[in-house]
Amino acid sequence: MKKYITYCITILLVSLTISCKKSNMSDMDKKFIIYKIHGNDTLGIYGTYKYPPTIAESCRDVIFSDSILRAWNQASILNITRDNSKYIDDCLTLYLQFYRKMDNFRLEFSKKVLNNIYLRDSDFDTGFYIIEEFYEGSAHYGTRYYLIVTREKELKSYGFEFVNSYSSFFLLYIDTIDKERFKNFYESFKKQDNNEMTNYRGFNVTYFYRDKIESYISGCMMCVSCIEEFKNILREK
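User: That's the sequence. What structure does it adopt?
Assistant: Structure tokens below.
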């Protein structure tokens, strides 16, 4: 009987040890490291990030799913690597790591914005756009996302700002924008004639349709005239 009890205790301890190891590994898997790279040289660690909860874990009645988020990231990766090393600069190399792991801004935007009144399932049939703007001013950095959708035959722009203290996006305004001018902006941006330095850290445009995602990612050099045209469209009421 004593031998049996000792055997059971041993099995229990081994099971607990394995369970703890699995738990520790699980915690490790929830973090990823982004490296600062210049050319072919790794200069150091840019930062260590935690994976936030998935869309499915955080939302009910999900429209913008985890699989769509992964497809969005994959479309961005394909755009960045389309011309191999000739096109990739240091900024794009940094973005590439985020998109291969998980982009936290996109995930947060999907959870807090795209699963409620701002996005409808029917928008995947008509098509919609998401613009990511990462800018830097004299005093601070900022992140804005724009959701461009069709409402009652008009093109609407929902502008959102990321607030660090809440780690979430908040709606700033809703604008009606000119369809033809926006189409011209998008076609110009797609060409990616990036030859000017700007005060932006990133300005990216993605088009979503039922069976297609087109994602255009800007690097250290951007199309300044394209960005200015988009800003001018928003300024016109």
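Confidence is low (pLDDT under 50) at residues 1-28.
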